[in-house]
Amino acid sequence: MTTRVHDQLQRPMRDLRISVTDRCNFRCTYCMPKEIYSDDYAFLPPQELLTFTEIERLARCFVHLGIEKIRLTGGEPLLRSNLDELIRKLGRIDGVEDIALTTNGLLLHKQAEKLYAAGLRRLNISLDAIDPDIFGQMNGRGIGPSRILNNIDYATELGYEVKVNMVVQKGMNDDEIIPMTEYFKDRELTLRFIEFMDVGNDNGWSYQKVVTKRQMLDHIQQVYELNQVPPAYYGEVAKYYRYDQSAAKVGFITSVSESFCSTCTRIRLSSEGKLFTCLFASDGFDVRTLLRSGATSDELTDAIRGVWSNRTDRYSDERTEHTARNRKKIGMSYIGG
Predict the structure, then answer these.
(1) ∠ CA(33), CA(77), CA(185), 5° rounding?
(2) How far apart (Å, rounded) are the C-alpha atoms in residues 324 and 303?
(3) What span, in angstroms and rounded, lies between the C-alpha atoms of 22 and 38?
(4) For the whole model, what pTM was predicted?
(5) Do 148 and 128 meet the contact criterion of CB atoms below 8 Å apart?
(6) What is the pLDDT of residues 274-333, one digit of tens each?
(7) Which helix (H) or strand (E) holds 155?
């Protein structure tokens, strides 16, 4: 029986982001800049990661409290071995309505088929440019977009619902907005533009590097006619627009210019078992120690309920240049996007 829990601002807990690894094969400038995350960077040892059985057990506790949607993230989640096993475990939980995966797409050609067979149907694939030089610079590995684009085609052929995420930075890849729009409109795939956010403390964020939703929308509307789409559900993050006479959509994730804190329904579980109630959190609640010390499912559920019911986070409402520079925040690669 589900007993939905609300936080101090009466926001329900509905969406669970589970990071399955803190490792990544890219070094994107806005997430894991290679100057900090070098090739010999000390990531978490395997024994500190939650096992799939532990994740499943915690997921059942979350679902009891109202979680309906689960998204697997990283780092790069496709670096976690046998991820299809976890998909199967989560898919067997009564009450889970949706399981999705966020990935950079590089390894999809090896894993997409078995993940689909395990029950995964939705993919969010990160791609920040069509231009090879720009994309190679942004991913920090010199990898061109063709491999990602081919894997997107492969995933759609298998039957996946694919959304493409593009983080836009002024002076970096803002000239790619129209080329990306044209490419994915022609393929009737949803492209989502993400405002450059101050996640973590390592990506050199400033307001001057942000291209706002309004600026991006105005730019696209010089080329295409767009019609706004009403939100599909409470807490939907992206603001969507549909092209005139087309099934394709573009979306905007507007953490900086149009905060959505007031309807945020997301809780995050890190790969080592810490709970975070905000993408911009400084600290997390250690549920792994509780789990491995023999806590019952009721005790775990009560602990999760306590974390959420005391939640007051509204960082994007309160963001200033000072907080962005001086507040210690968990890195995006650690708790996922």
Answers:
(1) 80
(2) 30
(3) 14
(4) 0.94
(5) no
(6) 999 998 888 899 999 999 999 999 999 999 999 999 999 998 888 877 676 767 767 777
(7) helix 146-158
